[in-house]
Amino acid sequence: MFVEILSSSFEDKIRISMTIETDREEIRKAFSPDAPPIPARLKTLELLAEAGVPTQATIAPMLPSSEAFPQLLQPLVNRVCLDDYYMGDGSGGKRTRNLGIDALYTQLGLEEWYSPSAYKLVYERLREVFSDDQIFISQKGFEP
Question: What is the pTM of this model?
């Protein structure tokens, strides 16, 4: 009911942005154990899509994901914002590096995902199912 009111009241004046850093629940649990589970976020996006509410998946900070992640998002969102620890922390990755996040990547054997160029892998996967005007990198994805 609320979603239907939201959709009809605001039409094209709003966009809901849902953070969904990965499609892998074990990765979500390792990096953000207190965050809502991936299935719950996907269900929310599904309900919004069914109601016709414009939605964006915000993959930020980008975490390791599967090759199927873009296909999972494609029917649920109108656009995607991709951001990582390097572009998104405002310091070229220094602030994130000071938090010791890289140690978790090393502990999990995912070092290749913690680099300034790692986002390109997910970006290329997104381009297989989304058009260029539906994919936004870093700050551009947070603009109106």
Answer: 0.85
Element (H, E) at 28: helix 25-31
Strand partners, 80: 57, 135
pLDDT digits (tens, 9 = 90+) for 20-42: 999 999 999 999 999 999 999 99
CB 105 within 8 A of CB 113: yes
Q: Lowest mean pLDDT of 53-62, 88-97, 100-109, name the range.
A: 88-97
Q: Which residues contact 76 (CB under 8 A, 6 or more apart)?
A: 42, 45, 46, 48, 49, 55, 57
- Determine the Cα–Cα distance for residues 124 and 105; give it in Å rounded to an integer: 22
pLDDT digits (tens, 9 = 90+) for 119-139: 999 999 999 999 999 999 987
Element of type H or E holding 122: helix 119-127
∠ CA 55-20-70, nearest 5°, is 75
DSSP result, 3-26: HHHHHHHHGGG--EEEE---S-HH
